[in-house]
Amino acid sequence: MTKGKGLYETLGIARGGMQAWGDAMIQNFMFFDASVVIFIFIHPRIMITALVDSVIMMQSLVLSAKNRGLGTCPQGSLGMWRSPLKEHFDIPKGYKLVCGLALDYPKEDEKVNQYRPRKTES
Ligand SMILES: Cc1cc2nc3c(=O)[nH]c(=O)nc-3n(C[C@H](O)[C@H](O)[C@H](O)COP(=O)(O)O)c2cc1C
C-alpha cells in the first residue's frame, strides 16, 4: 500500500472527496498544528554538497527529537512555497528552500498520528 493511500484511508478520506482532501492539505500547510516548524535552506553555490548535508542534518534532528520524546514530520511540500517565508524572515539572496520539518510532542489521539506506514511496499 502506498503511503498516501494508507494515510487517506486512516483519515477516512474517500477517493474524490475533494472537501476532506482540501482540509487535509490545509492541515499539511499549517504543519499539523505543531508548535515548531523548521525550514531548511541550502547555499546556492554548493548545491549538491549542501543538499547532502541538509538531509543528514534533518535525519539527525528527527532521531534526536525522537530520543527526547518529540515527534517530527519531514514535509517536502513545504519546499514548494517560499513566498510566505519572505514576509517573516530575512532570507539571504539566492538561498534555496529544500523542505520543512514540523516538530512537537506527538498527540497520539490525533487520527493523522495513528497511521503507521509499512516500511516495505507489498
Ligand atoms: C521526501 C519526503 C517528503 C515528505 N513530505 C511530506 C509532506 O509534505 N507532508 C506530509 O504530511 N508528509 C510528508 N512526508 C511523510 C512524512 O514525513 C513521514 O515520512 C511519514 O509520515 C511516515 O513517517 P515514518 O516513516 O516516521 O513512520 C514526506 C516524506 C518524505 C520521505
From TrEMBL:
Residues 26-103 form the Nitroreductase domain. Keywords: Flavoprotein, FMN, Membrane, Oxidoreductase, Transmembrane, Transmembrane helix. Its cofactor is FMN. InterPro entries: Nitroreductase, Nitroreductase-like. Pfam families: Nitroreductase. The chain crosses the membrane at residues 24-42. One of its GO terms (molecular function) is oxidoreductase activity. It comes from the Bacteria. Belongs to the nitroreductase family. PANTHER family: NAD(P)H NITROREDUCTASE YDGI-RELATED, NITROREDUCTASE. This is Nitroreductase domain-containing protein. It comes from Paraglaciecola psychrophila 170.
